[in-house]
TrEMBL record:
Catalysed transformations (reactions): 1-O-(1,2-saturated-alkyl)-sn-glycerol + (6R)-L-erythro-5,6,7,8-tetrahydrobiopterin + O2 = a 1-(1-hydroxyalkyl)-sn-glycerol + (6R)-L-erythro-6,7-dihydrobiopterin + H2O
Molecular function in Gene Ontology: glyceryl-ether monooxygenase activity; iron ion binding
Domain Fatty acid hydroxylase: 82-213
Species of origin: Clupea harengus (Atlantic herring)
Cellular component per GO, a single term: endoplasmic reticulum membrane
PANTHER family for the chain: ALKYLGLYCEROL MONOOXYGENASE, STEROL DESATURASE-RELATED PROTEIN
Cofactor field: Fe cation
Record-given protein name: Alkylglycerol monooxygenase
Function, in words: Glyceryl-ether monooxygenase that cleaves the O-alkyl bond of ether lipids. Ether lipids are essential components of brain membranes.
Membrane topology: Multi-pass membrane protein
Family: Belongs to the sterol desaturase family. TMEM195 subfamily.
EC nos: 1.14.16.5
GO BP of this protein: lipid biosynthetic process; membrane lipid metabolic process
Domain of life of the native organism: Eukaryota
Length: 416
């Protein structure tokens, strides 16, 4: 949505500020480059559909308001705004809770929980498919609340949740009783047994207290999925659970169990309650994870990190340019640039994962990038940097061509 587009520079600035404050406080990095790149990449992918269609939440709300509203509350009344504030937050609680308790919705929402770190970039790690279902939960508000008021509050609700994705803010005292805070949301992102299916609130934590889903932060939280993805391939992060769900669906015996796979909780198995048995969740602690090296953070050379970082900045700039100019670009240009962005994010993920075929894909991607640069589809950050960027892209292509030839010659020697 428009507000999110305007907020992007502030998001990135706050992410960088958090990294600086974290480094000054701890004397070390509070992130890994591979995780940070994957989180921001997921945020970019989640917004790509906006290049082609309006957001489902707002467009469906407007349609429902135009055709089925019962009463039209005055947009300039304080009571309307307060009702919208509580209404949006209440609906979000149930959107969020159902996204954890219905397997088909968890397939989308698990993207947001897939990071094993917890910082502001984690807030940007969003699913491309979640909005396909979330819009339904807000429709009752369209019976009375004007779309303009709803749009402001749904944006505020999401923007508020950005800042609570941090470990730097510990306890907010009496505010912890009412508001969703970093402490409460850390619990929500935990895979410790006491954290599972807790603290769904958006701005307010009162709904969790009312409906029995609240948990206080006690033991240090271990972040991520119960069964980690262990990959930085952005398409795998976004869609791997759908493949898993499909397999479970076809293996289930009978229509009852097949539907249970789709509409029960992620931990459900035949013979267990609808949400499964949380006692079966593996017990993890910060100490045990550290000793076992369980965090997926593969070692890779510093020059390769710099390479990925620079190319990621280039694709982030291209993404921002396309998003800003989507109304004036022709559709084929938008489709071409969307394909390039997805291709780049996938290829960079392959490099981070150190896939055996990454050199082939990256060679092709660098060739595509050079063509786009020559044809003027990508804009330089500044005119003075244009020459340096072109040289860097040329050297990138040359390096991967050499890698490709080396691998090809090595394969032929093995055959001989």
């Amino acid at each position: 949505m428009f507000v999110h587009e305007q907020a992007t520079p502030f998001f990135i600035s706050l992410v960088l500020l958090e990294l600086l404050v974290g480094w000054l406080r701890t004397g070390g990095l509070i992130f890994s480059l591979n995780d940070e790149v994957t989180s921001v990449s997921a945020g970019m992918v989640s917004r790509l559909p906006q290049l082609f269609v309006r957001g489902l939440e707002l467009s469906s709300y407007v349609y429902f308001w135009d055709n089925y509203r019962i009463v039209e509350l005055p947009w300039d009344s304080a009571w309307t705004w307060w009702l919208a504030f509580f209404g949006v937050d209440f609906c979000y609680y149930w959107v969020h809770r159902c996204a954890h308790e219905l397997n088909i919705l968890w397939a989308a929402h698990q993207v947001h929980h897939s990071s094993e770190y917890y910082n502001l970039s984690t807030a940007l790690r969003q699913s491309v498919t979640q909005q396909c279902a979330s819009w339904v939960f807000y429709l009752p508000m369209a019976l009375a609340i004007p779309p303009s008021v709803f749009a402001v509050h749904v944006q505020f609700n999401l923007l508020y949740q950005f800042w609570i994705h941090t470990e730097l803010v510990r306890d907010l005292g009496i505010l912890e009783l009412v508001l969703n805070t970093p402490s409460h949301h850390r619990v929500h992102h935990g895979r410790n047994p006491y954290c599972i299916d807790k603290n769904y609130g958006g701005v307010l934590i009162i709904w969790d207290r009312i409906f029995g889903t609240f948990a206080q932060e006690n033991d240090p939280v271990v972040y991520g999925l119960v069964h980690p993805v262990r990959s930085f391939d952005i398409l795998l992060v976004q869609f791997h659970y759908y493949r898993y769900l499909w397999r479970r669906f076809w293996r289930a015996q009978g229509i009852k169990y097949k539907l249970s796979v789709i509409f029960n909780g992620p931990s459900w198995k035949p013979g267990l309650p609808r949400l499964g048995n949380h006692l079966e969740v593996p017990k993890v602690t910060v100490a045990s994870v550290g000793k076992k090296g369980a965090l997926y953070n593969p070692e890779w050379p510093l020059p390769l990190k710099l390479y990925v970082f620079i190319h990621f900045l280039l694709v982030l700039k291209a993404f921002d340019d396309v998003l800003a100019a989507k109304m004036i670009l022709n559709q084929w240009t938008v489709i071409l640039m969307t394909g390039y962005i997805l291709f780049t994010l996938t290829s960079l993920g392959y490099i981070i994962d150190q896939r055996s075929n990454s050199y082939q894909i990256e060679t092709l991607r660098c060739a595509v990038l050079m063509i786009l640069q020559m044809q003027g589809f990508t804009k330089p950050v500044a005119a003075t940097l244009n020459v340096f960027i072109e040289v860097f892209i040329s050297l990138s292509l040359l390096y991967w061509v050499m890698q490709f030839i080396t691998q090809l010659m090595g394969g032929k020697r093995k055959q001989n």
